[in-house]
Fold these 2 entries.
Entry 1:
Amino acid sequence: MKFLSKTVLILGAVAMIACGDKKEEKEDKITIGDGTSPQSQTEAATDKSASEMNSSDEDVVEVTIEGNDQMRFNKDEIKVKAGQTVRLTLKHVGEMEKTVMGHNWVLLTQGTVINEFGQKAVQAKDNDYIPEGTDAVIAHTKMIGGGEEVTIEFEAPEAGEYDFICSFPGHYSVMKGKFIVE
Ligand SMILES: [Cu+2]
């Protein structure tokens, strides 16, 4: 569905451009297109597929989050409902190697101090930067590099607000967000 949604968006944009008679108008349309960041388009597509998934299967919610070569996630908030199975896909939309710009998605238990966890994670290189034996992780993906993606499934924890991060060294200070269970 995401591919279809994107296709519709692209076709829509082409149609808009094609409708413009004057060169000026064309440029205007193109500017508008550029102003709409790929990020928000992706989010819209993701939201759509998520709600469609909800209508067909209330117990599973699909979430997609992207990481890039600029050390950023494209979302700083993810909302799910208590009791749902979360099917989360992390996509690395960059090109850089896992050893240089690796990303993972780590959901932390409430009360975990991000800085402290992040510092422990630095020492856990051999374990994909997840501290061995930690009880601070509810769910996590493996570490991936540019062009890769990974999907995990887990049960949403009890209602509340949780932090998610990328635990690659140094990334947690900007690659983080709120995971909200309603
Ligand atoms: Cu990262």
Entry 2:
Amino acid sequence: MKKLVILGGGYGGMRILQKVLPELPEDVSVILVDRVPYHCLKTEYYALAAGTISDQHVRVSFPEHPKLSIIYDEVKSVDLEKNLVLLGDEKELSYHDLIIGLGCEDKYHNVPGADQYTCSIQSIENSRSTYQKLNNLSPGSTVAIVGAGLSGVELASELSESRKDLNIKLFDRGNHILSSFPERLSTYVENWFDTHQVEIINNANITRVEENTIYNHDEPVAADVIVWTAGIQASKIVRDLPGEHDGMGRAIISERHHLPQYENVFILGDCASLPHAPSAQLAEGQAEQIVQVLVCRWKGQEPPVSFPQIKLKGILGSLGKKHGFGLLADRAITGRVARLLKSGILWMYKYHNG
Ligand SMILES: Cc1cc2nc3c(=O)[nH]c(=O)nc-3n(C[C@H](O)[C@H](O)[C@H](O)COP(=O)(O)OP(=O)(O)OC[C@H]3O[C@@H](n4cnc5c(N)ncnc54)[C@H](O)[C@@H]3O)c2cc1C
């Protein structure tokens, strides 16, 4: 029996399972490895950390299938030469084909103290501990959020609705927050923050972090909790693989999504160097192409040499529970419609995967 091993049951890993299980030949079985016993909806971690949804709300069960087995363990490393995955307690798992979709981690840009003194929303474990810190704060405490991209903005707005008693400061490098969005959207979101008493500090440069102190251009600012949302990089397992990586530590891959030297090792989602910003949609689109390659090979056919660009439908962000913003087919949308659409997409996702 040949083994297809999937590392990571995130958005990419789930889409692989959904597409590959109905196509499995007799002589192939699938093993999924994840440290968490369910698929976690990472796009909702901001709300988990802010305390506005329960832990159960971000969980989706993994599928059940006679040819799927699931190992709940920590992936420690991959030995590409020996076709082996190293798990906790030095256990080894061999593979014929391997898909690595272990997601990403915070990137601290060498800011001293940032890894030690800031909270994170990049993993379920970290989001839970951030939730505890934020929600145990006494009234009038200050929360500093570093980075006003999508996740920083969603966290700041959700927290401002859930804890009106806190002083929230949102530090961002640019002249405008949400620098990758059109200015009209940034201005809409800035106005929302204005009316919800979230302080935006533009043109920030965080030079150091200490316990309860953040240094902006070397000037100390006191904060009871500091949350880092200022950059990501691929999982360390992928950063440590031999071969080329991009500036985010994502592995450079071939047109067929495998490592250039290893046709049986595919890199998926936030771990893969793709010509778009990492997103759940991108991970899912890429997963579908990887399954096409595998299925062709299992049938003894030549997989396509290249694939069309993965089509992304757009991006939606929330501003608390009632407002939102987004870009759909390059059209900017704001307000309640954007928020309703975002909730609808989440509902559909859970409906189709639950
Ligand atoms: C607050 C926030 C909001 C976001 N909003 C959006 C959005 O609106 N739209 C959008 O498209 N994207 C959004 N994203 C980005 C999106 O969540 C990621 O791009 C997406 O999760 C990537 O999917 P993935 O399959 O590559 O990895 P993930 O979904 O992160 O899955 C990785 C899996 O690997 C497991 N894992 C990791 N390391 C190990 C290990 N060493 N051992 C065992 N298991 C391990 C994890 O438990 C996890 O199950 C958001 C992200 C955040 C943080």
